[in-house]
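Database export, one record per block. Field names are fixed; values are copied verbatim from the stored entry.
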Amino acid sequence: MPAPLTSRTWLWLFVLVLGVAFLVGIGSWGPLESSEARYAEIGREMLVGQDWLHPRLLGIQHFHKPPLTYWLTAAGLALFGPNAEGVRILPVLAVLLQVLLVYGLGQLLFQGDRARALAAAIIYGTLPVVLISALNVTTDAYLATLELAATYGILRYYHDGRRWGLYLFWVGLALAFLTKGPVGFVLPLMAVIGFYFRQKQTRRPFTIHHAVGIVLFVLLGLSWYLYLIIENPAFLRYFLFEHTVERFANAATFNRAKPWWFYVVLAPATSLPWAAALLVYAIRMRWASVPQQWRNVLIFWVLLPLVFFSISKSKLLLYVLPIFPGVALLTVYYLGRLTDGVLYRWYVGFVAFYGAVLATLCMLPVVVTVTDVPLQASPFSAIWPAAGILVMILTLTLWSQIRIAPRILVASVLFTVALLISVKPLMQQNELDFNGARPLAYFIKQRHLENRKVLVYNELLPALAFETGRIPVSLNDGNHNLDRETQFEPSAVWRNTLIYLHDAKQQDAVNQLFAQRPVLLVKGSLKPERQWMLRSFTQHQHLGKWTVYY
């Protein structure tokens, strides 16, 4: 970066700019199904019910994940309000912290070279997959932050013996375990193995601080699990088998089956254009010319975790988020070996790629008008990508910086800011198509129907509960997503909000519901044998894929 500002100053400016780009319009659309809405509603119910140990989704206990993400979601709602902003602000802050941690790791791996550490932080903060993780609330943003903190802590301890680094490692591991269980060990464990593998590092002796760290891990990381197991011993098998072994080995357990090559394709695709440069030079450069440290980063931080998650039968894109700090650091290493002449060709390609993406967003209002693309895009939505193109052209044309690396980084930051600001109006305009429920809640309130029972036919819709602040009645007509785990329920109260239409014993409850002049939400159409339900309604309104009967 140009003088006289230091790399740390540029880092904080980047974090500030990225944070503003994230936060502008962050509440323009409501939580989206399924994952984000699920975490948002569990956090809301936890805050309302003040039960911090038994997460509930639509009134039924939900133990698919440890509670840390739910606690943080509830905290966000308490601090920033019961709205989409309250759900999303803390994950954004978690991602910004990841950027700072990548900078810290860069300083360690590049032997104090702050310029390269800065480059790694900027590359990481501009990866599309990282942007997605910040704006799609799940456990993964928090997990990646805690894994990075643990990794930075242990490598800092190995580097100069800082005891706080050792404690950061154990606390980070504990909180990662409280976020997503054993998978939180993957990156820190790989970093430890990579540090020692064929590098002849001096092993540090076991001390009292290691023992204290292990105690902290047990107290923090295992406390919630032990509490529930003591409360009900059946939780031991539930956690160990159903949510560890089954999730990894059985694709049908949580309906997240993907082909083995899912991450092999998606990981590079969601880290473009940086992934293209990394792949080219990781393949081209002779293996013998790469220092052992960087071989280990490639093997243990990227390839082995990628193989591990590819073997798993349950796959979602953000599961592999912990590999991308390694991707960013390796990209800086490989590109740092190139001359400015070679970098210039990549610079031209990057700018062309960024321009093409923003130009496509500019043309989207025209495209959706003349084609059958199932999207909405008002003419005003073209303003932001057009402004992004203009700012990039002016900055890169008028800026006197000769070196190519800073120009690539600045172009990437400008593109990222433009992209983040441009997509939010599109998210708002297409909320129903992206599985949001705010327009449904708005319609119910607009028609003054909020005091009536709301019935949702054959769909799990926590987004509606979050938007209205009330749990709807789910009518299960064979949708496996509505088959809830009720074995830990202390009573049958859950039957008030979940009805199985195929259960003849619940027919009286169904008849009573329809006698109360409810609101019925149907996605698509009713099955022929359920058409009788419509006799209770005189009006209906189509909203995207949904029909509201009232």
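Remark 1: Residues 239 and 245 are 9 Å apart (CA to CA).
Remark 2: Strands lie at 56-57, 60-61, 454-457, 473-476, 498-500, 519-523, 540-543, 546-549.
End of record.
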